[in-house]
Amino acid sequence: MNSLRERLIFLSGFFVRPATVRSVSQSTRHMTDRILYHAGAMNGGVVVEWGAGLGVLTRRLLQVIPPDGYLLSFENHPQYARELKRKLSGPQLEVVAEDASKTPEYLRQRGLPKASHIISTIPIRGEDAGQMLDAAAAALEPGGRYVQIGLWCSRELKNSSFQYHGRELVWWNVPPEVIHVMECRNGSANTGG
Ligand SMILES: C[S@@+](CC[C@H](N)C(=O)[O-])C[C@H]1O[C@@H](n2cnc3c(N)ncnc32)[C@H](O)[C@@H]1O
User: What are the residue ranges spanned by the domains of the chain?
Assistant: First the structure.
């Protein structure tokens, strides 16, 4: 359960950046359960989280990632990233206070392999959607899983680098959301590395 303090921090962060935070409260436990279900098995690779917020999903991911796995959690809201770094730390976690679109570049700079999973709760829409999907394709290994939350983004998620596997509408969340599950076909040519 989120503390009152955490709820207030999240809410105040929403008022500062409503378009990118997009919801007034963090994902519910039911939502994080369903996201983990759709993410599937994790085998000791690099898992990337997009839009970690205050870490409700980050904490759950750390529980399911195997001991030789590594979690990179991107969060570009400075207040959230600061709070998250204060709250969660450990040898398997790196909180990156950057825009998620920088993931491929970041993996390269850190000498990390491509990711086995990208789990994204950031809004995907309009012109930015193509750029984010390109970044996801460049960051994922072939067959890597991309799980994206979004009620109205089915059209934006059509992309030749991905095979669309399915979706689930989750009512028990504020707001209700759709979880989209996709698989990276064969990696992207534009990795630059
Ligand atoms: C709907 S909130 C989800 C927060 C948390 N993962 C949860 O499930 O409660 C979306 C989060 O994505 C972050 N975000 C939005 N666009 C981003 C981007 N391009 N790069 C990194 N973080 C982003 C927002 O600041 C916000 O914390």
Answer: 4-191
Tokens of 180: 């989209």
Q: 84-87 — which CB contacts under 8 Å span 24+ positions? A: 84/52, 84/53, 84/54, 84/55, 84/58, 87/54, 87/55
Positions in the chain short of pLDDT 50:
189-193
Q: 116-166, pLDDT tens digit by residue?
A: 999 999 999 888 899 999 999 999 999 999 999 998 888 889 888 999 999
Q: Rounded to the nearest 5°, which phi and psi values hold at 43?
A: -115, 80
Q: Is the Cβ atom of 52 under 6 angstroms away from ligand 1?
A: yes
User: How far away, in angstroms, is 49 Cα from ligand 1 center?
Assistant: 9
Give the pLDDT score at 2.
73
Enter the pTM of the model. 0.94
In this structure, are residues 93 and 73 in contact, taking their beta carbons and an 8 Å threshold?
A: yes
CATH node for 4-191: 3.40.50.150
Give the C-alpha distances (Å, rounded to integers) separating 49 from 3, 5, 26, 183.
22, 23, 15, 16
Q: Is the CB of 58 under 6 A from ligand 1?
A: no
Give 166 Cα–ligand 1 centroid separation in angstroms: 22
